[in-house]
Amino acid sequence: MTGAATGPVLRVRGLTRRFGGVVAVGDVALDIAPGERRAVLGPNGAGKSTLFNLVAGADTPTAGSIELFGADVTRLGARQRTRMGLSRTFQTSRLLTGLTVEDNLYLAAIGVSGGRLRLLRTGRDRTAREQARRTAESVGMTDRLATLAGDLSHGEQRQLEIGLALVAEPRMLLLDEPAAGLSRSERQLLTALLLSLDRDVTLLLIEHDMDVALTVAERVTMMHDGVVIVEGTPTEIRADQRVHDLYLGKAHV
Amino acid sequence: MTMDRMLTLGTRGALAVVLVVVALVPVLCTTFFTSQVGLTSLWLGIVAVSLTFLSGYGGMVSLAQTALFGVAGLIAARLSVESGWDPWAAALAGILAATAVGLLFGAVASGSQGIYFLIITLAFAQVTYFYFAAVPTFGAHEGINGVRPPAVLGDPVQDPARMYWFLLVVSVLAFLGLRHVSRTAFGLALQGVRDDPVRMAALGYNVRLHRILGFTLAAPVAGAAGVLSAWSNTRMSAGSISLAIAILVLTTAVIGGLNRLEGAWVGALIYTLCDTYLRGWTDRFTTWLGVVFLVIVLVSPGGVVGLLGSAGSWLRHRLAGGAPPPAAPSTPAPPVPVSSGGAR
User: Fold this and answer.
1) Is it true that A1-82+202-253 and A86-169 share their CATH fold?
2) Residues of B in contact with A78 (CB under 8 A)
3) Can you give the pLDDT at residue B280?
4) Which of A5, A75, A76, A61 has its CA nearest to residue A30?
5) What is the pLDDT of residues B251-290, one digit of tens each?
6) Mean pLDDT by 10-residue block, N- to C-terminus, for chain B (344 residues)?
7) A46, B186, B263, B325: which could join B256 in a potential S-S bond, CB 3.0 to 4.6 Å?
8) CATH number of the domain where residue B83 is located
9) Strand residues in B54-111 grouped as ranges (E)
10) Min Cα separation A244/chain B (Å)
11) Which residues of A are less than 8 Å from B187 in CB distance?
12) Topology (CATH) of A86-169
């Protein structure tokens, strides 16, 4: 990945996804620089989630290309992209409910570092365990390590969801509506956590919640009906009349 | 805390007592009981635990375990009876063949989940049954009679003690082996695949590969049970792996409890006891057996072991809640928790 240091971390060109006659994402172009914090905003049905799934490798585009860390990944699956250093969260928590918080994080660690088929305990295991506990600490879950993920509260599940994405130290983190269903105080904790993330990690988040998105992001891409209508800094976005008409106008009156 | 520790110790102690009692069966019980109930429960428990493992840890409810059981048992029987192989070598060949077939079955079935997985494995069970029922090399419907177990294990009918202990050792090894696997990275990931394959793929796992390997890992366990069954009964035929037997193995695993490996042997013991003694009391044997199973499944979805487990935690809760914490720190009455732990 020689191009990773200079070129964009993520480069999307002409990205299109049709479902029958519906164009969910139409000819989207996107460049995200290393270390950037980018938010994609838009009302329901704008195509945010489809774009997200295409970038994560959970869906295949009808047309267009996706380059990740300088390599063309358009035809690669989610698993390969994860091993390259891409990591994602899910809008509705997808946790390994029958396993403890620690085991969830441990599996997330070795999913990328290797040793997935290991039938003996080894030193690498210890490293992954330590990684799991460190991550639990950074998302504030140290006292829940032995709890089954299925027994966590909604807020805690969202915390673990982010922990799972962070534990393998990804180079790019995709967050799918991380604030969904969180209380006001939980949203503040989330915002603080996202702001504290290392600059080595590039951030792309899709968010419904303007407060979280505009606080965390440095650049915002606004989508509507499957296309990008405006891109700019949070200040520019707040000032943009089209955005007001579309989104803020309705949500903040 | 101390109460918990004592209960844990009590549980361990109780398990040790159970194991000692089980080991003493050939000494304490009749030859008939040791052979009829003991040997059958043990080999049935081993094939059932291969399903408990797949279902409980891998989320794969397979009806093909009897097919793998039959592949190993019939090949081992054929090689030792017809080709004059040493029984151990024949057993090894049979188990290896079952593992290879398991890999093949797993590779085909791993793309499906839930009811589709069940149906595909049902097809495997049927194909294997009809194959062995038709092919003269394996005795067709007659099967292969006069299977001789290794000489060191003695005569399974006249003097089943050594065979019984051998089956017990294999059972304990199968239990410890599968439990170890469930705690390794591979085993944890298999449970992850059971819980959420989409998440596991997003974490960088090859979900299908994990399913295939999990299925393959359970195959030699089912295969070993097949060989042990052929040795215990001195015969095996296609009838030993019919659809009825495939369903019996599933039922055994379910009534024992799919969440705990030891449930397989508990279920096998309950079935074998019913099979041996209910028959003498009533000619509506299958009806009563059905009633017993129905009651167990309705009362406890976690099977008999699940029932014991919830009784244990209820007791733990009662004891923890019932003991006045600040008032009487002196005597927490040790005999009560220890004996209550014995219930598990």
Assistant:
1) yes
2) 201-202
3) 79
4) A61
5) 999 989 888 999 999 999 999 998 888 887 877 878 888 8
6) 68 85 90 92 97 95 97 96 94 98 97 93 96 89 90 89 96 95 93 94 93 97 98 94 94 90 94 87 81 82 81 77 42 34 32
7) B263
8) 1.10.3470
9) none
10) 35
11) 119
12) Rossmann fold (3.40.50)
| Strand pairing class (A63-68; A71-72) | antiparallel
Q: Which fold has domain A1-82+202-253?
A: Rossmann fold (3.40.50)
Is A148's Cβ below 8 Å from some Cβ in B? no
Q: Are B236 and B77 in contact (CB under 8 A)?
A: yes
- At CA B43, angle to CA B37 and CA B47, rounded to 5? 135
Q: Is B176 on the interface with A (CB under 8 A)?
A: no
Q: Tell me, yes or no, if A119 comes closer than 8 A to chain B by beta carbon.
A: yes
Q: What is the DSSP string of A190-222?
A: HHHHHHTS-TTSEEEEE-S-HHHHHHH-SEEEE
Out of A95, A119, A120, closest to residue B199 by CB: A95
Specify if B328 maps to a domain. no
Looking from the CA of A74 toward its CB, the CA atoms found within 13 Å total 14
Give the residue numbers spanning the domain of B8. Answer: 2-322+333-341
B212 interaction partners in chain A (CB closer than 8 Å): none
| A97 Cα to chain B: minimum distance (Å) | 6
Q: What is the rounded CA–CA span in Å between residue A25 and residue A61?
A: 9
A155 token code pair: 């807020």
Q: Quote the minimal CA–CA distance from A25 to chain B in Å.
A: 22
B32 lies in some domain: yes
Interface contact flag, A107 B189, Cβ < 8 Å: yes
Residues of chain A contacting residue B189, judged by C-beta atoms under 8 Å apart: 107, 110-111, 116-117
Q: Where are the domains of chain A?
A: 1-82+202-253, 86-169
User: What is the count of residue pairs from A and B with beta carbons less than 8 Å apart?
Assistant: 92
Tell me the shortest Cα–Cα distance from B50 to chain A, in angstroms.
17
- A69: its two tokens: 């860390």
Task: Determine, for residues B204 and A112 on separate chains, whether the beta-carbon distance falls below 8 Å.
Answer: yes
DSSP 8-state symbol, B144: E
Chain A nearest CA to B161, separation (Å): 34
**Structure ipTM:** 0.85
CB-facing half-sphere around the CA of A111: CA atoms within 13 A: 40
The domain tally of chain B equals 1
